[in-house]
Amino acid sequence: MPETDLVAEMEAEIRAKPVFLSDVNAMVARAARLVPMQDGLFEKISVCNETYVTRFGVRLRGRMWTFEGWRAVHSNHPSPAKGGIRYAPDVGVDEVEALAALMTYKCALLGLPFGGSKGALKIKPGDWNDYELERITRRFAQELTRQNFLSSSLNVPAPDVGTNEKTMVWIADEHRRLKPQDINAEACVTGKPLAAGGIEGRSEATGRGVQFALREFFAHPKDVERCGLSGGLDGLRVIVQGFGNVGYHAAKFLSEDGCRIVAVIEHNGAIENSGGLDIDALYNHFAAYRTFEEFAGGQFAKSSSDLLTTPCDILIPAAREGVITGENAHAIAARVIVEAANGPITFEADAILRDRGVVIIPDLFANAGGVTVSYFEWVKNIAHMPFGLMERRRRQYENTLLTSTLERTLNTKFPDTIANLGGGREIDLVRSGLEEKMRSTYAQMSHLWNNAEGIDDLRTAAYVIALTRIKGIYEAIGI
Ligand SMILES: NC(=O)c1ccc[n+]([C@@H]2O[C@H](COP(=O)([O-])OP(=O)(O)OC[C@H]3O[C@@H](n4cnc5c(N)ncnc54)[C@H](O)[C@@H]3O)[C@@H](O)[C@H]2O)c1
């Protein structure tokens, strides 16, 4: 390509992509003014500790291909650092560092014992078949292991945009081969398939968390009043952008709660139905054709970018960052925006929406279901025991303390039945554990929003809680 074309292309790329990291830092800084800290501590908290960049070659299709990847560790005040790995053709270091920073604040907000990290590989997954993706992923895992950016005690990735449980199990297997002496090697990554060290409910977890986040919001009538809505979720019109892991599960669970999913927006077109889309039928169609075109249950629209501003009650961006900007924020019709994606609203748009009374349920809370269930998976791997079994063992132990002969006999003869009845199945434990985390976290955020001076929105409330916890850790450690 001639050099002038290359420069024009780079300029277009910079214009097209807002500086995501500055948006995140500006939002955190707004909240940091409300958290008293010793001089210089906020700067230490907000910078990214280290970013590893790798360029490695893989021989495929008769030639050498060079791939570029990153793993950023924003913080490791508690270790391991935790955060997904993204495969996308337009990803860059700014995006990875911004996402790593969000992980720090998300884990602190939810009270999970992790620092923040994120990784990415510049690749279009659809250009490669499974065999090729496996070879590329294993090579990436070798680099991360070699540099200590992959390990159960230091740095634990998970799925994100363009990656899934297959990607995770390739990473885990490659790491295990390189570290055969590490009894916890399996816990070097979460989001694995159930048959290979995963946990029930991880693939649905982020969408499930979005559902729980909205349920909690609607369980607080005073909060709901602030955006001009009333009542519950039943019958509300929802638009979802992105129909991948997070968008699909969020749409599915919210339609089960009685919401009408009136539009789903993808990168190559959108589908609308004012009466509500059949999400499972849409999922099957999209899985088969990778487009909504010719789906019988709705009207297809080729141009999808302006659909974010279509009338609805709840808007759920679940694709990429920076989709609601200073340009379209004035025209958003939704009264509630749930940030299922990381960073979908720019700093500028955030201010416009707040002025307009739109309630934003912020990313560090709304999409925390994924990392919360990842935490359960990591604990399960480290403990080398499935949760169902842990629960049964606990009940067997309790049984020895039971006084009634009948209870003792039932517990001994039918331990599975009793464990299942009491929520001993892994999926029940995962769901109830997640629900409890989302409920207690929302209650703290809502309390600050309604009572603390200077906290006028849920995002600031979330960051104030996260920063207060992180500050407490730094002060306790003494550095
Ligand atoms: N997977 C998780 O557990 C998890 C956890 C927390 C946060 N997130 C965040 O949720 C978002 C989505 O992640 P995912 O795991 O669902 O990814 P995914 O790759 O499974 O799905 C993303 C979907 O968005 C679509 N998309 C991309 N650009 C788009 C655009 N401009 N307009 C409309 N659709 C577009 C893609 O075609 C794809 O179907 C990301 O921001 C990610 O960081 C994911």
TrEMBL record:
Matches recorded under InterPro entries: Aminoacid_DH-like_N_sf, Glu/Leu/Phe/Val/Trp_DH, Glu/Leu/Phe/Val/Trp_DH_C, Glu/Leu/Phe/Val/Trp_DH_dimer, Glu_DH, NAD(P)-bd_dom_sf, NAD_bind_Glu_DH
SUPFAM superfamilies associated with the record: Aminoacid dehydrogenase-like, N-terminal domain, NAD(P)-binding Rossmann-fold domains
Keyword Oxidoreductase: yes
UniProt keyword terms in alphabetical order: Oxidoreductase
Gene3D superfamilies: Leucine Dehydrogenase, chain A, domain 1, NAD(P)-binding Rossmann-like Domain
Pfam families registered for this protein in UniProt: ELFV_dehydrog, ELFV_dehydrog_N
Glutamate/phenylalanine/leucine/valine/L-tryptophan dehydrogenase C-terminal domain: residues covered: 199-478
Annotated family: Belongs to the Glu/Leu/Phe/Val dehydrogenases family.
Protein name, UniProt field: Glutamate dehydrogenase
Organism (species): Devosia yakushimensis
